């Protein structure tokens, strides 16, 4: 072996680097939790950031992992900081990162059993555990995917194969027009999945929502009749559990009644809200979830895993094999294609990293109550956030939160600003807040108006952080007006 390869695989170097980096990360966590002055987001113009790292990449210097990773840390967004209130990305539990490090080094690719024996078995254990929580039958099954977007595609491909009756995998759509019905509030990965399947814009039948951004059930029959009268075959309906923008839960039981009546596949996109299953207080929002034909739940959103780890579950476990009817003969013989322990036949990913190691380690370390506590802490925080907004005279609430997502906006001169002016004002306030880097919040469009949006992902966020953030928005307003 060359000297360079020998050095790169050196075990003592690995031990030393590992200790140094774990120390660095533990210090990061300490300061994120405790140091009020830490910025969440070291904002820099993207071009400056690019230049900085281009020149760093070219720089010839002695490698010092601690110095280099300290620089990485300085330019990263700090999700463990309680003033992080942005997108639906959780501050991962430290044990999730440790499990990931372990899984990465062993690098057990999961496509076939021999390459990832424990990974394939562990994936099944986690899927069975989650299926049982949902109330699915024992025969339910599924697959872990790298994210909810791939998860939605995986489920909808199976729906197409199951419901189209023409073996669309082999024959294409044979000039038939297929479509899915989906709330206008659905995550964009759903319409992307439709476009990937080649059904075009016609393949997306948008369902209107009510004032709480839930699918308007009263419109389903009428839309169904109109669509089918145009010779479009509806393959599936996708329910939001809950929506990305406002955290609204669609009424699953009513939707399931409709789907059963018309023999339509029901897919529940529970990427964000699925974890509410673990809370007695909130699980009623998911009533009827067990009736869905397929479900996606992201572990990296409300279950404190580092990205990415998602579950796709099928009520009828065998449907999991319908996603990809294709057989890769060099990997799998025909018979093997139906073996649970060779995940390649059910997964878009060939080499797939050992995802189950993270939820498995979390449950072994802390028990599943950790998910209940996380959901209840963050959902509760959102209720408190909404109360603060409702009591204020200068902020407005878009809708009462059902999850840990809150949409709100600043509107200091209630009667004097037009809708467009309020949207512009909030866009510019958020831009300045982001550039300051003390807090991180996001924004979304609801009914063509721009609203500020927080997802309270960090259990360390407290009422004072929320009040300070609102004050900071006020300060920015007064400074620039
Ligand atoms: C409801 C919903 N579904 C799917 C996704 C996509 O998940 P991922 O980012 O894991 O691909 C998201 C992401 O925000 C989401 O909110």
Describe it.
With 481 residues, the protein is α/β, with parallel strands linked by helices. The protein has a domain at 101-366: Aspartate Aminotransferase, domain 2. Helix content is 43%, strand content 13%. The chain is built from 16 helices and eleven strands. It has helices spanning 3-8, 11-34, 46-58, 65-74, 94-106, 117-134, 148-163, 168-171, 188-196, 220-229, 252-262, 299-302, 357-366, 369-391, 419-436, 463-480, and strands spanning 141-145, 177-183, 204-207, 232-240, 265-269, 294-298, 310-314, 395-397, 405-410, 442-446, 449-455. The strands form two sheets. A seven-stranded mixed beta sheet has the order 1-7-6-5-4-2-3, sandwiched between helices. Helix 2 runs parallel beside helix 4, helix 5 packs across helix 13 and helix 15 packs across helix 16. It is globular, with a radius of gyration of 24 Å. It starts with a helix and ends with a helix. It binds pyridoxal-5'-phosphate (PLP). The site of pyridoxal-5'-phosphate has 13 residues, from helix 7.
């Amino acid at each position: 072996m060359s000297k360079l390869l020998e050095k790169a695989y050196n075990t003592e170097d690995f031990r030393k680097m590992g200790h140094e980096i774990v120390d660095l990360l533990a210090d990061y966590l300490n300061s994120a939790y405790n140091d009020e002055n830490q910025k969440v987001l070291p904002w820099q113009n993207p071009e400056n950031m690019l230049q900085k790292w281009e020149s760093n990449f070219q720089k010839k210097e002695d490698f010092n992992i601690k110095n280099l990773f300290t620089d990485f840390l300085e330019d990263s967004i700090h999700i463990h900081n309680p003033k992080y209130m942005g997108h639906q990305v959780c501050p991962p539990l430290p044990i999730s990162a440790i499990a990931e490090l372990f899984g990465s080094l062993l690098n057990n690719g999961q496509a076939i059993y021999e390459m990832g024996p424990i990974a394939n078995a562990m994936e099944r254990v986690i899927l069975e555990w989650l299926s049982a929580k949902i109330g699915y039958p024992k025969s339910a099954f599924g697959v872990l995917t790298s994210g909810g977007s791939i998860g939605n595609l995986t489920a909808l491909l199976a729906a197409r194969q199951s419901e189209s009756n023409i073996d669309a995998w082999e024959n294409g759509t044979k000039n038939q027009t297929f479509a899915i019905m989906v709330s206008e509030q659905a995550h964009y990965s759903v319409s992307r999945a439709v476009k990937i399947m080649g059904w075009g814009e016609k393949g997306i039948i948008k369902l209107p929502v009510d004032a709480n951004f839930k699918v308007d059930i009263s419109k389903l029959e009428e839309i169904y009749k109109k669509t089918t009268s145009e010779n479009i075959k509806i393959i599936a309906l996708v329910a939001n559990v809950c929506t990305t923008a406002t955290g609204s839960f669609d009424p699953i039981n009513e939707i399931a009644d409709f789907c059963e009546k018309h023999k339509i596949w029901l897919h529940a996109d529970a990427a964000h809200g699925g974890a509410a299953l673990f809370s007695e207080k909130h699980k009623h929002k998911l009533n009827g979830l067990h009736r869905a034909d397929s479900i996606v739940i992201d572990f990296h959103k409300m279950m404190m895993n580092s990205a990415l780890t998602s579950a796709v579950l099928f009520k009828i476990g065998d449907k999991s094999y319908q996603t990809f009817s294709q057989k890769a003969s060099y990997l799998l013989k025909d018979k093997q294609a139906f073996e649970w322990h060779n995940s390649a036949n059910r997964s878009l990913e060939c080499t797939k990293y050992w995802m189950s190691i993270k939820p498995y380690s979390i449950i072994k370390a802390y028990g599943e109550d950790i998910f209940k506590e996380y959901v209840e802490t963050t959902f509760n925080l959102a209720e408190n956030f909404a109360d603060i907004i409702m009591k204020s005279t200068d902020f407005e609430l878009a809708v009462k939160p059902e999850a840990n997502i809150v949409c709100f906006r600043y509107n200091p001169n209630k009667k004097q600003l037009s809708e467009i002016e309020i949207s512009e004002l909030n866009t510019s306030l958020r831009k300045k807040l982001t550039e300051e880097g003390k807090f991180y919040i996001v924004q979304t469009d609801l009914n063509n108006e721009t609203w500020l949006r927080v997802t309270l992902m960090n259990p360390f966020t407290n009422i004072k952080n929320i009040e300070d953030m609102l004050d900071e928005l006020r300060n920015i307003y007064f400074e620039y007006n």
